[in-house]
Write a structure and sequence with these properties.
Chain lengths: 239, 221
Amino acid sequence: MADDKTSVDRRGFLKYAATGAVAAAAPGSMHAQDHDHDHQVVPSDPALRTKALESLLVEKGLVDQAALDALIDTFEHKVGPRNGAKVVARAWVDPNYKARLLSDAASAIAEIGLGKSAVGDHTLVLENTPKVHNLVVCTLCSCYPWTVLGLPPVWYKSTAYRSRAVIDPRGVLREFGLQLDEDVEVRVWDSTAELRYFVLPERPAGSENLSESELAELVTRDAMVGVARVLMPAGGAKA
Amino acid sequence: MNGVHDMGGMQCMGPIHHEANEPVFHSPWEGRVYAINRALSAWHKWNLDAWRYDIELLPPPDYLRMSYYEKWLAALENRIVKYAMVTKEELASGKPTLGSARATPVFTVAMARVVEPRITAPSNDPSVAPLFQVGERVRARNINPVGHTRLPRYARGKTGKVVLDHGVFLFPDTNSQFRGEKRQHVYSVQFAARELWGEGASPKDSVYLDMWDDYLEHTGS
């Protein structure tokens, strides 16, 4: 594997080391800003390599440019946490639906308009209660219930989250602003196989008069991964 | 493989950076890398386990330094050469070798509009009997394979309880190297946080891992 490419990577590394090693090692909003800054100074290696690679693959007939465009459009605009939020809101207002969701997530999710084949048979929904808090992670890579929540955020894929979620879940949750009582049971789900987990958060107090669609507006991606609670708007719901 | 990707339980990785209103892709090239990876998988030259293994095979310093999609890009460059989709020379020059055959893309616009999870094994194969029962105490085997495995180091040798049987899946350790699917049951196994991390952990907490039959042994108690 040590070929010409490696030396390019090394140059990229030196550039990063000079301009923002901390940000590069700990992706997040800081990283994105520094990244943008980099682009203005030096052309980004990965952008150039990707462009060359795509053009080669198109010329060899291995990929179709329009199909790539369509794929990106799908993941930027059609798949995302709004789908999961609809599932959660329905479960909050309909106890029968909630029972189906917890016993056969794929069928229940299909009911809200996502095709069953789009969800896969191996999705499991974990219910948070006042006494049980579920948290989802993939320590080995980046497994995530993307058919329901879209592609995972950078923090979910970061070394910081992947390493610490299993050994210090309460510390991780505190970092997200969520302080759990000692008597709450924390269940961390490490997605080591092809099962995909997402969390059914607790319905917020004071939401009794909200409609299903209003409830869906409150449900965040972070709550469905288990790092946040769902809050009423006055409480400052997190993106 | 005891690589840096197997990072559950490490403590030196710094704070978690949460980005409000995060875009799906931070730069256009990330989207292209994502899409190329998915489109090329339609050629069926590799499987999902082999695909993951390619990322784990990146040199550890690169793995830790690179952003997520930089890893995808680097592994992709290695992969298409390894599976003879392009030559090293073509990758370096960015141009097809003169006179090389041109393929017809197998991944179409229509396919790109449908969100399909990547194929996994059927989960209800009655010919594959489970080796463990729900409720049973089990120990995660102490194995250290040099190839791909989905048994994290932090669970090896630890004792837990089978709480769910998910049905039958392909075994990643062999499937990743095209040495057989070895279909077997996968279970959710609950490990007490104190069993994994000692007395400093909360007595209330647990970690649930999905474990294949071949990762488990009976505790004999």
